[in-house]
Amino acid sequence: MNQIPEATPIFGQAGWNFSHQWSPQALSLWAKSGDEEANLSLPQHLLDAAGVADQLWVTWIPPKVRQLLAQEIGLSEDDCHRLVVWLAATHDIGKASMPFAGMLDDSPRYRYLGDAIRDSGLHLPGRVLPVDYYHHTVAGQVILARWLCNRYGCRIRPADSLAAIAGTHHGLPSFREQVIHAAQHLDKHAPMWHEVHQEIADVMTRFTGADEVLSRLLKSGQRLTDPVQLLLTAIVIVADWIASNTEAFPLGPGARYDQERVEAGMAMINLPPLWNPDDSGLPAKEEYQRSFGWSDDRSPFPVQEAAVEVARKCEKASIMCIEASMGNGKTEASLVAAGIFAARLNCSGVMFAAPTMTTSDSLFARVSHWAKLVVNEAVVSMYLGHSKNTLNRDFAKMSRMPSIELSDESSEPGDDSQKRALTVAHEWLWGRKKGILSSMVVGTVDQLLFMALQSKHLMLRHLGLAGKVVVIDEVHAYDAYMSSYLEAALEWLGYYEVPVIMLSATLPHSVKAKLIAAYQAGASGRYRRDFIDEVPASGGTYPVITVADADKATLYPVNGATKDLAVTVAPIDDSEEDLRQVLAPIVEEGGCALVLCNTVARAQQTYHEVSQLVGDDACLLHARFTACERVEKERQLLEELGPPKDGQPSPRPKRRIVVATQVVEQSLDLDFDLIVTDIAPIDLLLQRMGRLHRHVRAAGARPAAVSVPHAFVRGVADFGDDTRAPVFADALEDIYPRALLLSTFVALGLEGSGTVVDLPAQIPLLVQDVYSDKVDIPTGWAEDFDEARDALENARIESEKKALTFQLPPPCEAQTFADLWKEQRADVADNASAEQRGFAQVRDTEPTLEVVLCQEVPGGYRPLPWLGSGYHDTVVAKDQPPEPSIAWQLATSTVRLPYRFSKPAVFDRALDQLEHETDAGWQESTLLRGQLQLCLDESFEATLANYRLRYDRNLGLIDIEVEAMKGNK
Predict the structure, then answer these.
(1) pTM value > 0.85
(2) Is residue 4 a contact partner of residue 66, using CB atoms and an 8 Å limit?
(3) pLDDT band at 453 (very low <50, low <70, confident <90, very high)
(4) For 375, how many CA atoms within 13 A lie in the half-sphere containing its CB?
(5) What is the largest CA-CA distance in the chain?
(6) Could you tell me if 604 and 752 are in contact, meaning their C-beta atoms sit under 8 angstroms apart?
(7) Which PROSITE patterns match (predicted)?
(8) Predicted pLDDT of residue 374
(9) For 817-835, what is each residue's pLDDT tens digit?
(10) Burial call 479-492: b when 16+ CB within 10 Å, e when fewer
(11) Which of 105, 287, 351, 697 has its CA 20 to 30 A from that of 81?
């Protein structure tokens, strides 16, 4: 274990002393406008920010990040500490410029700020014309670059690489044309302005003791690399945001450094301490019992034991890929391995990335339970990273106020609760941009992919991830477009020496090799192509763990008994009659079945058919229910069909048929006796089969007719013959590539009577066969299959090319810091609507529209009347902000519109209508601001962009035109 020495504060230690009599001109400059009673001077804000940065470095910046920065810059950690504090102490020097100083001159309330500057003798003609305006961050970069060159006699490139941090501390860089424009106008400032610039820079350099550090750094002639600039900028941003909190750092006159002021401000923010992990060194069984509270008679699966052994063999940052069948405890294995990696490599947190919101929700409780048992601090901050996190019960009820207590007073001596930490959702570490800075983060994979997207404040994601272990679940689930972003993110994680753990049951070797090679390229500074052919293929070895560092990749077969399952797979016609026949045992004898459909429309139609068979024993789940109703449906299903609790299986209903879309494919740990599924690529079908007989149950617990696992595959309109390839049902080829459907069709013998799939033994073989085109396609299908395969390959190439548009370049390849944002110079996630556009950039999808459903009533509108305690008599007046409880219910009533509304022309028409019709009062509501409102009539219908929609409590949101088309067939 390579423990890093604790950092020592710069300010307040023995021998430290500083005082400066600021000039009247410097004191006249303002940083925070405040009001007529008080404002904050620029020198005071810079002193506050320096003090905050000092405290952050000592108490909050992960040791791994401190070590990495010192190593990359070529300084000792103490010198790097001084550099960070100096950067914070000068970050807002650009506010000492006429555009900023006079920006409020047109306001009678704030004109006094400019008058004070003029009274000090500084020339300030008033608010500058728009054509002459430049942001204070750009001014700061120009001022600091010039001062550094003059002070240390260095070239502009190394000086500018430091000054660019001030130029980027609002989340986006100062681009070349902006810098040139600002420089030209700063040249026209009166000499006294330049004297103030000199004073601030000189004083802050003496104050921080950074003179020698800057001299050595700049005289080396080397510019800071872009990964270093990203991390340093992120630290400065956090310091600036905290120092800008006027409750923690009150407004007031003067400018002097006050250690008590800094400590009081930091105490008010009250950031939780870092997680300081420790590898217990316990045998695998005891480690899992400690980590998850398992009983003494429970033992880990072989892959779980292997994960512990392999993680403890890793001496340096590595990427680990765990391939094991569904239900073998990969999640628990990854968390234990993450804890070992974190302890050995000085990481201070974990990021668990999952494919969907639902997956993230189900994982959050498991990760928080683990965190409470294994952290050895009193408090660890947690965050659920997706836009609907407030709907998650576990997250919503999590304490928002940190506590330093380890246990309740009622704990008995020796009770395990005394050893458990408190996990909190810290108020300051909240939101789209700051949540990633929490110690433990569970979120959608988008939160990780955004690391590789040119976007505002992306450096906060880099800081948030650089000190963590990153776990990526279901890595097979991402298409070529998303995988391109994932590869880019992995290359950056490799550079930062971040341990990564990937999980999958059905991962093609070609995908695994590209992901591992990307990580190795980042870790080594070499090209991905140098590694891709060196990643060993596992062949038929399964389960297996692959580990790679900067030098090599190693395969570790997992020995030991596995949970074997023989699934009989058979095709059925895409008819209501065939569906009735295969469900007959459930209808007559009971049991639990899953009917999985690839589209919402098919699921709604199928539910209608199934409910005629079993009535209320049918359940429908898809993504077009309101968020609150979907969460409740998922909760009920987990209670009925979920994993054992306290060693006891869930109390399954006597009969249940769940009709669902892909939301249950990976996201919910559910156990079924029988599955009917639409055809899909082999890896996804195998995932679906993993829901069959998933949990161990007592003999006789499953009805005799379904005691042997069966999977029936439908979605084929015409099975074809030796001369004709099959024709798949409407829309299915819009969801999945025809080439993969054809090869899967043959691999499972669906052109005949089907086959028996031995899980897990056949998983790697089937996946490799389908994805490597080794399936023996009938000769009569060859032309059709070749065309489909060419289309798939062309689509892959186009997707990867398209993904590069706004993708971050690899580490250290950008010529300047600003080049990281070469193609995208705007914020893609400044509100909920814009966040969806950001998601569309890391997922190869059209932007989707999400609306808040409510019902129009005389005098206003109301939430859907059946929600909450019932809103039948509620009326919310238009143009008035709803009261908080109603606003919350409305905010949880979001739903995604059908796919047709993603088409550009329809999207634009719908968005214009929604923006025009959304109640103006929502802009005054914190919960509803920026949301789009869709009011339904008395029949719960609405017309949007000339299309008719209906919301049904049982079916969800219905596209009436699509429903009518189905009825006419």
Answers:
(1) yes
(2) yes
(3) very high
(4) 27
(5) 93
(6) no
(7) HD_CAS3, HELICASE_CTER
(8) 85
(9) 999 998 776 665 544 444 4
(10) ebbbbbbbbbbbbb
(11) 351
